[in-house]
Amino acid sequence: MRPLLRFWPDLRSRIGVYIAVLALTLLANGIQLVIPLITGHIIDGPIAHRDLPGLWLPVFGVLLIGIAEAVALWGRRLLVAPVVAQWEITWRSRLFDRLQYTSVAIHDSWESGQLLSRAINDLSQLRRFFAFGIPFLVVTPLVIIIGTIILTVLQPVFGLIMLIMAVPTIATVTVFEKRYREASRRSQDTVGEITTEVEESIQGIRILKSFGRSPWAAQRFSLMSRKFQGLEVRKAKLDSWFWSVLILLPTLAQAAIVGVGTWGVVQGWTSIGTVVAAVTISMVMRMPIEMLGFLLADALMALTAAARYWEVIDIRHDITDADGRIEDAPDVGRYRGELDFEDVDFHFADTDRDTLKNLNLHIDPGQTLAIVGATGSGKTTLASLVPRLQDVTGGSVRVDGTDIRKLPVNEVRNLVSVSFEDPILFSTSVAENVSMGAPGVDDDAIWRALEITAAKDFVERLPEGLDTQVGEQGLSLSGGQRQRLALARAVIGAPRILVLDDPLSAVDVDTEDRVQRALREILPDSTTLIIAHRPSTSALADAVAVLDEGRIVALGTHDELLGSSPLYRELMGAAATAGHSSSEHSASEHFSARHTSEGGAL
């Protein structure tokens, strides 16, 4: 029960209310045991003595008990709903917060569907369990014990019959618990797999349709659904056996009480009223005993849900502030933006192979450095180290001479702004997506950022301009439009350090040239690290570093490296580059002249 007990700190703050809920649940269920005693009294008293006036008080007592039961049930629901709803919000917020400060590598190791099922299905299961399961799981055994004591007081042999019934019940529970827990865990994990499959199919619907693979996706989903069906059927079979035993044993006990009680009445050592009271109590106890099957199944599913929840919460915060905390008050104005990689090594957690090895690199404040390398050389990994999406496994990344691991995480991430090749937009407006890079900015600042990234024209043509909803992941826009909005988000806050991972791969060369020149003019003080794949990008950078198998093997300007680095010429396509660079240079001069002319006219 340890995964459930770990919620105690959250429960403790409202334990008074929860105890009241338990008390009301016990009252609503336990008070029913009094009615059989009143019934027995009526049979042996007013009925046996034909005392009609003597019926009024017992009947009034039954009425009061019914009212008390109804009030207790009403009060229990009224009290428990807001408490458990608040706990669910707390747990979900805790899980979400944990995921926000977990490294990208750990995120990549989890299926998104598994995280979604934990955040939604499992926490909903826990809310229901704390609202209904625990109160009844605590109260039901008490009701059974109280009922057994009442039977023993009425007639010891009746209590003995119930105790004898308890032995096979406990044995059944022991066998059921282990098997059901295993089936429940597998079933809930499969829900996560199904969630992942649905999410991937929705996100990849264009690929599935383009390649005619919808039947393949449907078959995969069908296989997972059948797997889930098999696990649910296994749970149902275990349930059926358990419920059958729990229904059979009270029935046998009830039959024994009727038989022994009848014999006792004939022999004269008990009364009819006592036997009727005992039989009625055994009937009242049947429901709690039968409920044990449902409650135990619910408890095991909640136990599995709790274990799955804590698996996420227990993920170590591997990217934190130096003292283990995460500060929320960034102060970035004092930084110049000098960036150094000193003897940097990096490897992913699931391998010992270094992606970056003994890498050294210096970028002056305001300098633009392009990183060029073949696929798999470590360019994106290098870029992810600056905003601490990953942490180095050796060496250090320094800003103004200070290891970024010694700086507050949020301070680093306000100092550094990023834009990736695969742009991620959120299901909200253009304005909200762009202003995410500098919360609180006005529309004028947003338009300036859009103008820098050559996005202003197409945004003005959108149905509602800045208020246009871009849809899930911005898929209502083209790839180049999404990239330019993501780049606007990166530059709107005039970051001290700008990390660009091929952010304009989906736009034409002329647009890329315009954007990069605008960035140099508008953000002259921003230190820029850009992952480059085009000669035009490298040509505009102050310096170019060539990355090969995790090491910097060449460093210089675009023209210098064309002459001195065979690898760089190969990456840039040297033969084509010369002519391409010349044409691009001419185009750039033409653009600059036209821009100057238009500026003069204005």
Automatic annotation (TrEMBL):
<dbReference type="GO" id="GO:0005524">
    <property type="term" value="F:ATP binding"/>
</dbReference>
<dbReference type="InterPro" id="IPR017871">
    <property type="entry name" value="ABC_transporter-like_CS"/>
</dbReference>
<feature type="compositionally biased region" description="Basic and acidic residues">
    <location>
        <begin position="582"/>
        <end position="602"/>
    </location>
</feature>
<dbReference type="InterPro" id="IPR011527">
    <property type="entry name" value="ABC1_TM_dom"/>
</dbReference>
<feature type="transmembrane region" description="Helical">
    <location>
        <begin position="292"/>
        <end position="310"/>
    </location>
</feature>
<dbReference type="InterPro" id="IPR027417">
    <property type="entry name" value="P-loop_NTPase"/>
</dbReference>
<keyword id="KW-1133">Transmembrane helix</keyword>
<feature type="domain" description="ABC transmembrane type-1">
    <location>
        <begin position="19"/>
        <end position="301"/>
    </location>
</feature>
<dbReference type="InterPro" id="IPR039421">
    <property type="entry name" value="Type_1_exporter"/>
</dbReference>
<dbReference type="GO" id="GO:0005886">
    <property type="term" value="C:plasma membrane"/>
</dbReference>
<feature type="transmembrane region" description="Helical">
    <location>
        <begin position="266"/>
        <end position="285"/>
    </location>
</feature>
<keyword id="KW-0472">Membrane</keyword>
<keyword id="KW-1003">Cell membrane</keyword>
<dbReference type="InterPro" id="IPR036640">
    <property type="entry name" value="ABC1_TM_sf"/>
</dbReference>
<keyword id="KW-0547">Nucleotide-binding</keyword>
<feature type="transmembrane region" description="Helical">
    <location>
        <begin position="15"/>
        <end position="35"/>
    </location>
</feature>
<feature type="transmembrane region" description="Helical">
    <location>
        <begin position="129"/>
        <end position="151"/>
    </location>
</feature>
<dbReference type="InterPro" id="IPR003439">
    <property type="entry name" value="ABC_transporter-like_ATP-bd"/>
</dbReference>
<dbReference type="Pfam" id="PF00005">
    <property type="entry name" value="ABC_tran"/>
</dbReference>
<keyword id="KW-0813">Transport</keyword>
<keyword id="KW-0812">Transmembrane</keyword>
<feature type="transmembrane region" description="Helical">
    <location>
        <begin position="157"/>
        <end position="176"/>
    </location>
</feature>
<protein>
    <submittedName>
        <fullName>ABC transporter ATP-binding protein</fullName>
    </submittedName>
</protein>
<keyword id="KW-0067">ATP-binding</keyword>
<dbReference type="GO" id="GO:0015421">
    <property type="term" value="F:ABC-type oligopeptide transporter activity"/>
</dbReference>
<dbReference type="Pfam" id="PF00664">
    <property type="entry name" value="ABC_membrane"/>
</dbReference>
<feature type="region of interest" description="Disordered">
    <location>
        <begin position="579"/>
        <end position="602"/>
    </location>
</feature>
<comment type="similarity">
    <text>Belongs to the ABC transporter superfamily. Siderophore-Fe(3+) uptake transporter (SIUT) (TC 3.A.1.21) family.</text>
</comment>
<feature type="transmembrane region" description="Helical">
    <location>
        <begin position="55"/>
        <end position="74"/>
    </location>
</feature>
<feature type="transmembrane region" description="Helical">
    <location>
        <begin position="241"/>
        <end position="260"/>
    </location>
</feature>
<feature type="domain" description="ABC transporter">
    <location>
        <begin position="339"/>
        <end position="574"/>
    </location>
</feature>
<dbReference type="InterPro" id="IPR003593">
    <property type="entry name" value="AAA+_ATPase"/>
</dbReference>
<keyword id="KW-0997">Cell inner membrane</keyword>
<dbReference type="GO" id="GO:0016887">
    <property type="term" value="F:ATP hydrolysis activity"/>
</dbReference>
